[in-house]
Amino acid sequence: MYDYPTILVARDDALDCRLVQCLQRNGFHVLEANDWDRLFDVVRVHSRRIHLLLLDAKNMYANVTILKAHRFWLQVLFVEKPVDVDDVLAKIRKLIGSPPSPLHLVPSPSDPGILGK
Question: What homologous superfamily is domain 6-102 in, according to CATH?
Fold first, then answer.
């Protein structure tokens, strides 16, 4: 998962599983948290970079400052109801880009680094 942008989703009724599934299908590594304690734990202990925090615009706004104290580069995207999955995906791509194509991750047989030629 080193090449895949990681998105932490603060799940609630607004950010349903359709959005999480869409992000995963589009190549993003998705972490989920259902409450403030879990969200804070993930931000604090996850070993790799978390590129984006995705949360409902009405939830946990005040806690973002605390989260950014642990991951100052963390970008935040607030999502409003009703959630338009395509719109959210477009905003995410604008903020952090798209994951690499799976074709770029498969080593080529002609690559001398792979075969030791």
Answer: Response regulator (3.40.50.2300)
